[in-house]
Structures are given as C-alpha cells and as structure tokens.
Automatic annotation (TrEMBL):
Residues 495-878 form the DUF6701 domain. It comes from Oceanisphaera arctica. Residues 1-17 form the signal peptide. The keyword Signal applies. Keywords: Signal. InterPro entries: DUF6701. It holds the Pfam family DUF6701. This is DUF6701 domain-containing protein. The keyword Signal applies. It comes from the Bacteria.
Length: 881
C-alpha cells in the first residue's frame, strides 16, 4: 500500500536553469541591489573575488578578512533566482482511516503471551511481558492506543497497522526480518527510550498529529506528518521525513531527496546529517542553536530559505531569516530571501547568496571541503585534557599536513586515554573527523594550527586554520637577593643585603624578573618552567611598599618611575590575569605571585634636637669613666629627598643606625691630644622614627698616659657623623650631611675640666708598739701648672688593694684604708716594709714608660730614737711630675 504524498518539485524550472556555480560563484554574495554586509572582529570569508564582495554597503571591523586580505565591496549585486511560490509537502492516508469498534483488549504484564486476532480496542504490553502478534494478517486495527511500556516487548508481523495512538515508553518493538510494516496513526506518536527500532521497510504516518522521538530511541525508517517532527535528547532517526516543522534536539540522518518544511530548528548540539544529496526548501526560518551541525563535509546540502513569517513565533528583526548561533556549522549552499546571521564562531562551509549578511566575531564562510574548529581555543602550556585546547576536524577522516611553527605540539583523541602523540611540524597524519581532539603545546603563544588535506598522490587540497592560545599556568616574580619572604620576616641584621632600590621620595623605576611555568598535565598545579618566555603585561603588576602603611603603585609600563613614599620593603605583585595574546581566556587564568624584590631607604638623616652633657661637680679625671647626670647626644630622624620626615624609618628598617656606623668625636683642633677622640655610643630607637644617639654613660674615659698634663676645660665641641654603607643607593651611603646642627657641647658647664690625677702615699716611721697613719693625697696640676690636692678625695670609697712587701719575711703589719690615709696597727718589732696600693689607672702615678701604682715606705724603729709625744710619727711626702 502506497502513501499518498503531494510533492512539488518546483526547482526543476527556474532554479535548475541556473547551475550551482552560477548561483554561488563565490563564498558570499547578495542578490539584492541594496544588500548590506557586516563583519566583526576576526570574521573570515574564504573564496572571494580577490577579497571583493558583491554587496552594496558594508561595515568591516579591523581584523575581519577576506582570503587573508581586507574585505572590499563591488557595489554590485550577485546572481539572483526567482523562487517559485512555496508549497509545502502534504501527506494523507492512502484511504479513509480504517477504524474499528472492537472492544477486545490485549494486555500483558508478565511472562510470554501471543494473540492471533487482527482488531483490538487497545494493546498494552508492560513490565516483564514478551508478547507476539500472530496470525499473519495483512492488516491490524487498534481503536485506541498501542502501548509498549518499560520492560515489555512486542513482536509484530509484516502488514499495515491502523492505530488511534502510538506510545512506546521504554519498551521494545520488534519487526519482522522481511516485509513492510506501515503504521497509520490517527493521533499522537510518542516514542521514548525505545532503543533500536525499525528497518528500511518501516514507515510511520501521522498526517494530523505530531511525531516525537525521545531519549535513547533510534528509529530506522521514514516518519511523515503534516505537523511537527521532534527529536529530543539523544534520539536518532535515519530515513526520510515529511513535516511542517522539524525540531531537532538529537540526530537526524536524512535520506537523499528534496524536502519542503515551514521551519527547521536545530537545538544545542543537534545533528542533521545527510546520507545522499539533499535539497531543503524552508518557508520561514532556519535556526541552528549553539554547537549544532547541519550537513556533512562530504555530502553538502542545498537550502532555499524563503524568509516568510514564522507562524509559531513573533518575528525578531535582530535575528536572521537564517540564524546560526555560536559555534554552529552548516555544510552546504544557502540561498536566503532575507538576512543570514552568523553568531560568534559559527561557520558555513560552502557558499551563501543572501539579501543581507551579518557575521559576528570569529565566524567564517569557507568554500573548503572540510573545516577546522576550536571547541576550546585556549589551554595551559603543557596542559592535557581539561587543561588542553580542543579542536574538531569537521568532515570525513582524512590525511592532513600539520603546520604550526615552533615548539612541540601533541594530541590525544578525547576519551581514548591512549597518551599524547607528537605532531611534527610539516609532517602528514591521519586525524579523526567530528571528534574532539586534545592539543598540547609547550610554548606560551598563539599557535596558528593549519591542516592541509592531502590526496593519495600527496597533492595539497583544501586547507583550514584555527588559532589556539597557550598560556602560562603561573607567572613567578623573582625575589631580590637576600630579601625576606614577608614584612614579618624582615630582620636588618640578616637582610641588610636586600637590594636597595631607591631613596624615599625619589621617582625611580625598578628592575623585575619573571619566570613562566606551564601546568602539570591534567593536574591543577605548577609544572615545568617555560623556555624562552617573556612576560610583558605591566598592567597586571603592582609594586607595593610594605611597612606599617601599605602603599600600592599599579604599573602601566615596566620602566615607569615609581614615587616611593616611605622606608619600606618593596614587593612586586602579579595578579591573576588573562595572557595579553588570549582574546578571552575564560577559566584559563594565568595565576600570579608576589615576592619582595628590594627595599627603600631614607635620602638622608637629619638632627632634630641635641643636648649638652652634664656631670656631678665640675671635673673628671683622665682614665676614669665619666658619670653623666645628663648624657650628651642628638635626636636624629630620616628624611626623604624633599627633606620631609620619615616616621617609617623605625624598627628593623632603622637597623643600620648602630654604633658601628656612627661617629661621635671631639673637635678641638688646637689640642692634638683630645682632637678627634671618639665617644662610646648608645642608640635608642623610637617607633615614631626619631632616634637618640648618646654618649654612653660610665663608658667614656679620657686617656691617661705616663706624662702628666695641666687641667683642660671640657666644655668642648662634640661632632656627630653617620655613614651607613648597607643603606647606600648608587654607591652613596646613607649619611647625616655635615652642617652646624651636627655639633653639640660635651659638657655644658663652662668651667668643667679634665684633670690628670695621681694618688700619693707618704712614707711613715713609727716606734714599736705604736699605731699610726700613712697620709694619702690625690694631686693634680691645675690649668696653670700648680700642684693641687683634691680636697674631696676619699680613699675609703676606692677599690684598692694594699700590697706589703716585708723585709726578711717578717710578720706583716695590719693596714686599713680610711678616708684620708692608711691606718697602721702597732707592730712589736723593728722592721721596714714597702706599702703599694694596687689602684685603678686614673689614680696611678707616672713612670718612665708606664703608669705605676703609688707606693711608700713604712719603717718601725726599736725605740732607740727618743720621741716626744707629738713626734711619735714621722712621714715623708714627695710630689712627682
């Protein structure tokens, strides 16, 4: 029994009179006298008349190209055909629908079952039932519904089946090995998760209702309706169709022939392939959603889009009458009585003849027989799988010459886990078609990957190119030598060698060094160092001053002068970023890093205040540590190049301000003995950046040599000098510039003097059994050379050791230090002793080559010398100069 189909093969006339070459002489043209073309960035047309396009007006963005040249206009129209009036394909039943009034039902839920009848009210096979229609009838009638539910199986015989509805939901329908099976359905057709169903002799006719295939259904056969044919999910249909509207969410393998439809809509990832030459006449709209494909590289399609009103939706003037969404592909020749719009990444492989043409960025029209597209046009250097770029060779599997320039490029077919194979530049390889291929590369750059199809005789056929970006996984900024990792780690004694980059307030550029790293294969971690890589994106780098205050300086160029504001560690921070050559890196951000690259120092030091010293009394002795009641000294601070104070010069940042780098010296040009004498120094750091430099208390001692001198005034100048080599900039150390502010007076009292003191012990002669005292005097020469006794001297306060050298081993006399001498106990026998006081240097007496301990003779007489009461003690005193 034959289906009654009304087909209007109207292209046998006007259209057929023009050959494909006549209608599509170039890749793109307009048949309208006022045709407009708009091409955005990186839109490409390959196969033009020397980059000239047959359009009346055009808008070409900077990087759009025609055959690798800037596109231009001919201001003429291309060839035109007068399409005959659209007439839809129409189907009807071969006769009036053959109904039945049968009340018999065939139901089966479990086990095996069969039925030899030919007419039923309904058939329902479900769960664990395996049923068979027997009887060998040529015709079967089912009043309501034929249902095969999940778990059920129904085996049919050849013949015609007249059905109220067809509903297969997870069940299986088995057809005979030979003989035609025709379903004539008066209602809806719903086939879901039916697995493999049908053969070349299987036909479904539903003139007045929709046909819907869903889930895992794979229908082999023809499907005809005057309504909507819809394939959802992963459903597939292989065969011929008739429909008013074709809506694909799955795959249609369309048999060769001519088809007329009101509208074709391919949903995301849908596929409409052809198994023979196909002509599609579309009354209203052609719509390809994202990543969908219409046609094959080896079997292109001819499409005639009338651009009529879409009866199912409101027209959107921004959309094309033929609308190809992002990354969709069409293999064929498209004649549109209206506007063709290609969205980002969309491609036509064949030719177009339109009224208006709009091409978004990275879209393409190419006369080639295959195409190369990037499913993901960016990957990390050395990245694999999720970290790699992904390409697809659209068309048939073929042999290609691979060209990409320098470096090493390798590939792996997605899902195979077979390891990466090297593609040598310029060699020929067989690559699979319509399959995702991971691309790995070991250089950080844009790679123009060119595939050229090769004939069996090694002739070059068509070629196509895709640009892939490979970006570093991480940019590591290199730290300065001997610099700490963080501000918290900074210790001047350890990190003084951290590079000094600039003086505070000084505009100066810094030198930066970077290393780029690839990714570790499929792992999200740093891999190997990238060879010959130069990071050149200063806009992603910030120079940061690290101190109590954090100051950021975003870079615009690497040689930009930075106005450092304080004494600080200097950190370079690379932000996470898109590599500059990658148009849109998506989730392939290059990770940044940070490191301390150096530090800044003051421009100079400055005296804030100073104070003269004060002492108790009005004199000090040479050789004796000076006890200041007020220590002489200076308060200093750091300043920038403008002379402004730097509170940031504190803590570890002021670690170079130590006694080793400070000189406090007397300035007495007319006194060669004291001129230039340096003082012991104490440094007191302050958190506000003001630091006190003092003469250390109880450590200053004027030199005492063997030659006495007259008393000297010590109301003399004290000069401060500072030079810190470790804080040098351009070999210029950090200094306190010499001026009048760096001088102060050692002792404020104008009469304070330095004396050369000597402790003198007088000889003593005593009678036996008599006590006595050896007088002790502290003597000095005043400013006029007169020998003076110091009336304030108290021997008992001094740490002195009395040494007695007996004569002939006699018993030693008892000796006691008192305020003004050495008391001697009574001694029973006549004797003579040398009494020596082991004292501090400032009390020692002069000698020819060295200072000497003071000494005297103690004589004990036997009483033969008559003495009066007041003459019982005899002593001798001698002054030495």
């Amino acid at each position: 029994m034959k289906l009654m189909i009304s087909l209007l093969f109207f292209f046998c006339g006007a259209v057929a009179a023009q050959s494909m070459n006549d209608l599509f002489p170039y890749a793109a043209q307009s048949h309208a006298s006022d045709g407009k073309i708009k091409m955005e960035e990186d839109a490409i047309i390959g196969g033009t008349n020397n980059a000239r396009l047959d359009f009346y007006s055009g808008d070409f963005k900077g990087s759009s190209r025609c055959d690798d040249k800037p596109c231009s206009l001919s201001y003429k129209s291309g060839p035109k055909v007068n399409l005959p009036a659209y007439q839809a394909d129409s189907i009807s039943f071969p006769a009036d629908f053959k109904a039945t009034s049968s009340s018999l039902e065939f139901k089966c839920e479990q086990g095996n079952s069969s039925d030899s009848r030919s007419q039923f009210k309904s058939i329902k096979i479900e769960k664990g039932c395996s049923a068979v229609l027997t009887g060998g009838h040529d015709e079967y009638r089912i009043k309501d519904k034929l249902e095969v539910k999940s778990g059920g199986e129904l085996t049919l015989t050849a013949g015609d089946y007249w059905l109220g509805e067809l509903d297969i939901d997870g069940g299986r329908l088995h057809l005979p090995a030979s003989g035609q099976v025709n379903f004539y359905v008066n209602g809806d057709v719903n086939i879901k998760d039916a697995g493999a169903l049908g053969n070349a002799d299987f036909n479904i006719y539903a003139p007045d209702d929709d046909i819907k295939l869903e889930g895992s259904s794979q229908l082999l056969g023809d499907a005809f309706t005057n309504k909507k044919l819809e394939l959802k999910d992963a459903a597939q249909l292989t065969g011929a169709i008739r429909a008013d509207t074709l809506k694909l969410d799955g795959t249609l393998n369309l048999s060769g022939g001519e088809y007329s439809l009101h509208k074709i809509e391919l949903k995301k990832n849908a596929r409409l392939h052809t198994t023979g030459a196909v002509i599609l006449n579309i009354e209203s709209k052609l719509k390809l959603e994202e990543d969908s494909v219409l046609g094959n590289a080896s079997k292109s399609v001819r499409l005639y889009v009338y651009g009529g009103e879409d009866k199912d939706a409101d027209d959107d003037p921004d959309k094309g009458d033929a609308d190809l969404k992002k990354n969709s592909r069409l293999y064929g020749f498209v004649y549109v009585q209206g506007k063709l719009k290609l969205h980002e990444g969309a491609g036509v492989y064949g030719a177009v003849n339109v009224v208006d043409l709009e091409m978004k960025k990275n879209s393409a029209i190419n006369f080639g027989t295959f195409s190369l597209s990037a499913r993901r046009d960016i990957g990390y250097v050395d990245g694999e799988e999720n970290n790699a770029a992904i390409i697809t060779v659209n068309g048939a599997t073929s042999r290609f010459k691979v060209e990409y320039g320098s470096g090493e490029l390798a590939y792996e077919v997605a899902g195979e886990k077979s390891g990466y194979s090297i593609l040598n530049n310029g060699d020929i390889y067989s690559l699979p078609a319509d399959t995702e291929i991971y691309i790995r590369h070991n250089q950080a750059r844009n790679v123009d990957l060119v595939l050229t199809e090769m004939s069996d005789s090694e002739e070059e056929l068509s070629s196509d190119k895709v640009t892939l970006a490979f970006v570093p996984y991480q940019i590591e900024v290199q730290p300065g030598i001997n610099c700490p990792s963080t501000l918290h780690d900074f210790n001047y004694s350890i990190h003084a060698g951290c590079s000094v980059l600039a003086k505070a307030g000084e505009p100066k550029s810094v030198s930066l060094s970077f290393i780029g790293y690839g990714v570790n294969g499929i792992n999200d971690e740093v891999g190997d160092k990238i060879l010959e890589y130069s990071f050149n994106q200063p806009e992603n780098v910030t120079i940061t001053e690290l101190n109590t205050n954090v100051v950021n300086h975003p870079l615009t160029t690497f040689d930009m002068n930075i106005g450092f504001t304080q004494v600080a560690l200097v950190q370079a921070v690379v932000a996470d970023h898109c590599a500059v050559y990658a148009n849109n890196c998506g989730d392939k951000l290059t990770k940044g890093s940070d490191a301390v690259i150096g530090r800044t120092v003051p421009a100079a030091l400055d005296v804030v205040t100073s104070a003269a010293g004060q002492i108790a009394g009005n004199h000090v002795y040479a050789g004796k540590a000076v006890a200041f009641t007020t220590q002489p000294g200076f308060t200093v601070q750091a300043v920038d190049i403008n002379g402004d104070p730097l509170p940031s010069y504190s803590g570890e940042f002021a670690g170079g301000l130590t006694a080793d780098n400070i000189s406090l010296a007397l300035m007495i040009p007319d006194d060669s003995f004291l001129d230039g004498m340096t003082m012991p120094v104490t440094v007191q750091w302050d958190d506000n950046g003001q630091h006190r430099i003092l003469v250390t208390n109880n450590e200053l001692s004027f030199p005492k040599e063997s030659t006495p001198f007259d008393a000297k005034l010590i109301n003399v100048p004290l000069e401060l000098n500072i030079a810190i080599e470790s804080d040098a900039v351009d070999d210029e150390p950090l200094i306190l510039p010499p001026d009048q502010n760096n001088r102060e007076t050692l002792v404020e009292d104008a009469n304070a003097e330095l004396r050369y003191g000597q402790l003198m012990i007088s000889d003593l002669t005593l009678a036996t059994e008599t006590e006595g005292t050896m007088p002790v005097y502290l003597q000095y020469f005043d400013q006029y050379g007169t020998l003076i006794d110091d009336p304030d001297f108290d021997l008992s306060t001094q740490s002195a050791s009395l040494v007695v050298e007996p004569e002939n081993g006699a018993v030693l006399p008892g000796l006691t230090q008192t305020a003004d001498g050495i008391d001697v106990d009574a001694y029973a026998e006549a004797a003579e002793f040398q009494i020596r006081a082991d004292v501090a240097d400032w009390l020692k007496t002069t000698g020819e080559a060295a200072l000497l301990d003071p000494a005297a003779t103690l004589s004990i007489s036997a009483g033969e010398t008559p003495l009066r009461g007041h003459d019982r003690i005899i002593y001798r005193r001698e002054a030495i100069r």
